[in-house]
Amino acid sequence: MRTGGWICSAVLLLALPAAADTASAVRWVDQEFKPSSLTRERQLAELQWFMQTADRLKHQGITAIRVVSEKIDTHDYESRTLSRAFEEITGIKVQHDIMPEGDLVDRLYAAIKSGQSEYDGWISDSDLIGTHYRYGSVVPLSDFMQGAGKAFTNPGLDLADFIGMAFTTAPDGKIYQLPDQQFANLYWFRADWFARKDLQARFRAKFGYALGVPLNWSAYEDIASFFTHDVKEIDGKTVYGHMDYGKHDPSLGWRFTDAWLSMAGAADKGIPNGLPVDEWGIRVSNDQCTPVGASVERGGATNSPAAVFALTQYVDWLKKYAPPEAVNMTFSDAGPVPAQGQIAQQIFWYTAFTAPLTQPGTAAVNKDGSPKWRMAPSPHGPYWKTGMQNGYQDVGAWTFLKSTPLPRMSAAWLYAQFVTSKTVSLRKSIVGLTFIRESDIKHDYFTRNAARYGGLVEFYRSPARVAWTPTGTNVPDYPRMARLWWTNVATAVKGEKTPQVAMDSLARAMDDVLADLQGSGMRYCTPRLNPRRDPAQVLSNKGAPWKKLGNEKPRGETIAYEQLLKAWTEGRVQ
């Protein structure tokens, strides 16, 4: 960072007459954008750069842009507050639309295929990175920042400060997306209930080991059964030992593609996603790039014993231990439920829902504002082995299409940098708790307030966080393949098919898409299917797809939460 330039700019700004934009910048810094990892002077200097750069775009006739993102707290804050701040400071109006993620993915895919983009900028998950670099429709930001977009790239952007850049960088070494928000999939539990001596004694008497954070799925199921069928009621409320969702909806697909199979142990070892078989069960060839199959008969693992076990456990737990209404809930419906005070634990819980769980007056918060709950690593299934992916991490990231006219894209890029800038990002992190910058995670604000967030700060400060990763590059066409998951999983939830038949159908459908993509004209790593083989000859004890275990429910194991925090501090997962 060119510190001297910042100081000079700050002095210049403070010496300027009280122009409208300058006054707006000062007001936003003093009233909204605090605390910050920057000093006030450096914040004002950064905003001065945004104003000057916006003037160049306005001279090209750009006075308004349109962008879109999925609906979570962080993006609501951007849409309601940061878009208004950007307009007042720069004079460029932003229409920041919010929509369900499934709709956003479909519209982005339609724009890629048609070559006509209705938005100037998109915040879409880095899960699409394998799609973006193969099709060549997305602007490689590495090239843009050094070429046509150099004049519109903030000298204080500081890419090294972003914690998710590895996930938005393709195998060609280029950055395709700029992280805007980031959250992990972890285990959530009511620490106050787990600490009760009477419940600890009852649990040990029944299961023979301590009530604590579960290390494996066996312990999770024991705890789920204990609270649902033995404890039954706390403080006059019916309690449940598990929470999930099961509605026939695109979010049901995320429930699985967001690493559920790899949490069971279906994939190969290897961070970030398992090689050669990833967390979707897709195998790539020896070039570590070319998808060759998803079904076991083609060398994949989507319908392997571990994958079938993962679906079986999901359906059983949903119907046995969760509230009856959970089966008809979506991702968004289920997210706020733990705050209502009836859920003992949740194995698959997104930290994007941390902010609502910190609100005073909710059943999950003490009178002093401290949480009654904690978060921890999710337990592993019986097929999981050390060295495999631990869980999923979402990285919503700014994405720009080559079909967008350069001036409009440049203005959207300016807005993207504004909402991720050091001037703004710490305040945005406090609102949404979806960290993107190391400087924000390590800021004194989160040191002083870490206890409010139930382990979130400790998790993100730990080097262990890299074991939670987004969907990897084995997936060649995320929009087409993601929609296959929820439609097939739903047949098992409804009881229309057994888990084995449902996963067989999914695997065949994925193979069909891979076959169709063989002639798609992708620029890189075009799929090429393996010939079919007898599954009995493919299943292995040495790598995915793994052979069926004789015992899929070993003895439950738990750990004290304090030990987990110590492990995170030391950079270990557990």
**What is the CATH architecture annotation of the domain at 3-182 and 396-465?**
3-Layer(aba) Sandwich
Query: Which fold name is given in CATH as the topology of the domain at 3-182 and 396-465?
Result: D-Maltodextrin-Binding Protein, domain 2
Overall geometric form: globular
Sheet with most strands: 8 strands, mixed
Q: List the uncertain runs.
A: 1-20
* Text of the CATH class of the domain at 3-182 and 396-465: Alpha Beta
Beta-strand residue percentage: 5-15%
User: Gyration radius, to the nearest Å?
Assistant: 24 Å
Structural class, from secondary structure content? alpha+beta
What is the rounded distance between the termini? 36 Å
How many alpha or pi helices? Answer: 23
Number of strands: 14
The CATH superfamily of the domain at 3-182 and 396-465 is identified as: Periplasmic binding protein-like II
What is the residue-mean pLDDT, rounded to a whole number?
A: 93
Binned, the helix content reads: 40-55%
Question: Nutshell version of this structure?
Answer:
This protein is of the alpha+beta class and 574 residues long. The chain contains 23 helices and 14 strands. Strands 1, 2, 3, 4, 10, 11, 12 and 13 form an 8-stranded mixed sheet that branches.
General description of the model:
The structure is a single chain. The longest helix is centred in the N-terminal third of the chain and has 19 residues, at 40-58. The chain has helices at residues 3-15, 20-31, 40-58, 73-90, 101-114, 129-135, 141-146, 191-194, 197-207, 217-231, 250-257, 260-264, 305-321, 331-334, 406-420, 422-432, 438-441, 444-449, 456-461, 478-493, 499-517, 535-538, 561-569, and strands spanning 64-70, 93-99, 121-125, 178-190, 213-214, 233-234, 237-238, 283-284, 291-293, 345-350, 373-376, 391-399, 468-469, 558-559. The strands form 4 sheets. Strands 1, 2, 3, 4, 10, 11, 12 and 13 form an 8-stranded mixed β-sheet that branches. A two-stranded antiparallel ribbon has the order 5-14. Mean pLDDT is 93; it is low at 1-20. Helix 2 packs across helix 3, helix 2 runs antiparallel to helix 4 (73-90) and helix 3 runs antiparallel to helix 15. It has 574 residues and is α+β, with helices and mostly antiparallel strands. Among the domains are: 3-182 and 396-465, D-Maltodextrin-Binding Protein, domain 2 (3-Layer(aba) Sandwich), CATH 3.40.190; 184-248 and 314-389, D-Maltodextrin-Binding Protein, domain 2, CATH 3.40.190.
